[in-house]
Design goal:
The chain is α+β, with helices and mostly antiparallel strands. 56% of the residues lie in helices and 9% in strands. The chain has helices spanning 7-14, 32-51, 63-84, 99-108, 111-128, 132-140, 152-163, 171-199, 208-211, 219-232, 246-297, 302-317, 333-348, 352-359, 365-372, 450-461, 467-483; strands spanning 88-89, 95-96, 373-378, 383-385, 395-401, 404-408, 413-416, 421-422, 435-439, 443-449. Helix 8 (171-199) packs antiparallel against helix 11 (246-297) and helix 13 packs across helix 15 (365-372).
Length: 491
């Protein structure tokens, strides 16, 4: 059957709401499995970062070190496989599950480095399992373990993936402090281990290790002394441990210059983070002061001034509206659809009718969430609708947070708490509100625009097999409403 002129544009429009293609055994980069693996990668990188520089010391062999040696070796071997079956996040925010594109992207980025590191790990096992000559060669080639430090290049990517999932504004400054602290300890750890390696080298001249008799002490004393020296370089050095040879003096000078630059950068990063938080907080205060000055200049009463300021303060300090987030305007349209569906589907499921549609994975739900749903922020004492009002733009309301009161025609008051929906009748019939809905506290409501819902439903009813369910539910709802002696907005 040929398409009419009115249905052809709808087919083009419907392309924005294509259902996600099943990706089978390819992992979503944001799945719990992949998140757990990324956290494991972070732990393994931190372990290598700590233990590899410790080769400067004569570390005693024990069961724990052997176990961790095999754990890291096997983990990074399997990491190559996991990287090959993890979807790729594209620039528009979508996830690509095509195995060819995944392998091509991995081959261009981390595959070469991962193969070099893994092969260096397993070569040590091969050499160690040979004869005396091979065993001796394996010991001399343990320096190859330093290749593992190339994984520090991936540290930035792993940390970015982890911090992207931290959405709390309170944790933001804490994360910045932790980053600075980690950088400080990392530089001190590497510097301390190198300082001990320089002092413990085989030479006939004096070294700080020999002068202070640390060559006869245990690894714990040697490491703590080296770490103490490295940390002291951030504050100008220490007199207890000092260079005893020209090479050590040269090393100390180089470290002092490097740490001076690093300290300046760390202070700058930390200060800029605090300044950013101050600017974000101060912006709201300046807007509130301007509003108060405007109300005063126009002789607005104190009661109204208080209500307006409370409402504005709630708006800038509470939940944000889409209009206040500038970056939402630059993301791709398909990603906006997925964003709206993720936000509003978990609210619409509180209504039995929409819960059924969501469980059936009905294609109508994505356009409803994207085009017909909005958020409404309220302050205490705000009225949503009045009794007897016939709204020009009817909407169904769902309470996301806060509490409200509904007063019916008999003057009886009912509490409307979270997860309750109000005025569903506007979706199925011409409706005049049978009561008054008022916010008791600061509240957040999700609104479903009835006109937008009707438009979307009419379009999908022409093509969707689920159209009969919508018609049946609407007829049953209106029939039950007509049988009811006491009509109410509450659902």
């Amino acid at each position: 059957q040929a398409e009419t002129e009115s249905s052809m544009p709808f087919r083009e429009e419907e392309d924005d709401y294509e259902e996600p293609v099943p990706h089978g055994w390819i992992l979503n980069p944001d799945s719990n499995t992949r998140i757990s693996w990324d956290l494991g990668s972070l732990i393994m990188v931190l372990y290598d970062m700590v233990m590899i520089p410790m080769q400067a010391y004569d570390m005693p062999e024990n069961t724990f070190l052997d176990f961790m040696e095999w754990t890291t070796r096997l983990f990074w071997t399997f990491d190559i496989f996991f990287s090959c079956i993890t979807g790729v996040v594209m620039t528009d925010g979508s996830v690509e599950y095509n195995i060819r594109i995944i392998l091509k992207r991995y081959a261009k980025t981390w595959l070469t480095m991962d193969l070099i590191i893994v092969l260096s790990d397993w070569s040590e096992v091969v050499f160690s399992s040979g004869g005396v000559a091979m065993l001796s060669f394996a010991r001399t080639t343990r320096i190859v373990r330093i290749v593992r430090l190339l994984r520090l290049v991936r540290m930035q990517e792993i940390m970015a993936n982890v911090t992207e999932r931290i959405q709390s504004e309170t944790l933001g400054p804490l994360v910045q402090v932790c980053k600075v602290l980690i950088v400080l300890l990392t530089i001190s750890h590497f510097t301390g281990c190198l300082w001990f390696a320089v002092g413990a080298r085989n030479t006939s001249e004096s070294t700080w290790v020999k002068v202070l008799s640390y060559d006869t002490q245990g690894v714990d004393a040697q490491y703590l002394a080296s770490l103490h020296w490295a940390l002291s370089q951030f504050s100008g050095g220490m007199d207890e441990i000092s260079p005893a040879s020209a090479l050590e003096r040269l090393f100390a000078v180089a470290v002092g210059g490097l740490i001076f630059v690093v300290a300046l950068v760390m202070v700058g990063v930390f200060t800029s983070g605090l300044t950013q938080q101050y600017i974000i907080g101060g912006s709201g205060a300046r807007q509130l002061a301007t509003l108060k000055r405007y109300l005063k200049q126009n002789n607005v009463s104190k009661v109204i001034t208080k209500r307006v300021c409370r409402n504005a303060k709630h708006a800038i300090s509470g939940d944000l509206t889409p209009e206040s987030v500038e970056l939402l305007t630059v993301i791709s349209e398909p990603l906006k659809v997925e964003l709206a569906f993720d936000m509003y589907s978990q609210v619409l499921m509180w209504n039995p009718f929409f819960l059924d549609l969501l469980q059936e994975n009905s294609p109508i739900m994505r356009p409803i969430c994207h085009r017909a749903m909005h958020m409404l922020l309220l302050s205490a004492t705000d009225n949503i609708f009045q009794m007897g009002e016939e709204p020009a733009e009817p909407k169904m309301y769902i309470v996301v947070s806060g509490s409200l009161e509904y007063t019916d025609s008999y003057g009886e008051v009912a509490q409307v708490a979270e997860k309750r929906y109000v005025a569903e009748a506007v979706l199925w019939t011409n409706w005049k509100h049978r009561g008054t809905l008022t916010a008791v506290s600061d509240a957040k409501l999700a609104m479903l625009d009835a006109q937008g819902f009707h438009s979307i439903a009419q379009r999908f009813m022409r093509r969707s097999e689920g159209a009969l369910r919508i018609v049946q539910y609407a007829n049953q709802f209106v029939e039950d409403l007509n049988k009811s002696e006491f009509k109410t907005d509450l659902g």
